[in-house]
Write a structure and sequence with these properties.
The chain has 121 residues and is an all-alpha fold. It has five helices and no strands.
Length: 121
């Protein structure tokens, strides 16, 4: 793999992790602290965009840079798991179930919608 690709992955990954931080901070400052709406929004929109890229037929280096480096740095599975664990440590498990099931159902629906839209545009 060429050096420029490695450098582009690093630059895009770093940039989109900052975007994730800013989006999460903007949403979290406007919503209830109990439910992690910022991470939920980030992972759902990232699922949509990645589905769109795949539906549009991106592949090779383009998918590596757009999908892995950009969307991969923007979305966050580890934070999702940490927040799910935090929600599960309370006596009321309903927020945990809403977060986990909501993330899976809405995330899969967003990926499917993005994939469909990507195939059309």
């Amino acid at each position: 793999m060429a050096l420029w690709i490695w450098l582009a992955v690093a630059a895009l990954g770093g940039s989109f992790s900052v975007v994730r931080f800013l989006v999460d901070a903007a949403i979290s400052s406007r919503t209830a602290a109990e439910f992690p709406w910022g991470t939920f929004f980030i992972n759902v929109t990232g699922s949509f965009v990645l589905g769109w890229f795949v539906g549009a037929g991106l592949g090779g280096t383009t998918l590596l840079l757009a999908g892995t480096a950009s969307v991969g740095a923007y979305t966050t599975f580890s934070t999702w798991m940490l927040e799910a664990h935090r929600l599960g440590s309370d006596d009321d498990r309903r927020p945990l179930l809403a977060y986990v099931l909501g993330s899976l159902v809405v995330g899969l629906a967003a990926a499917a919608a993005g994939h469909s839209l990507g195939g059309v545009l």
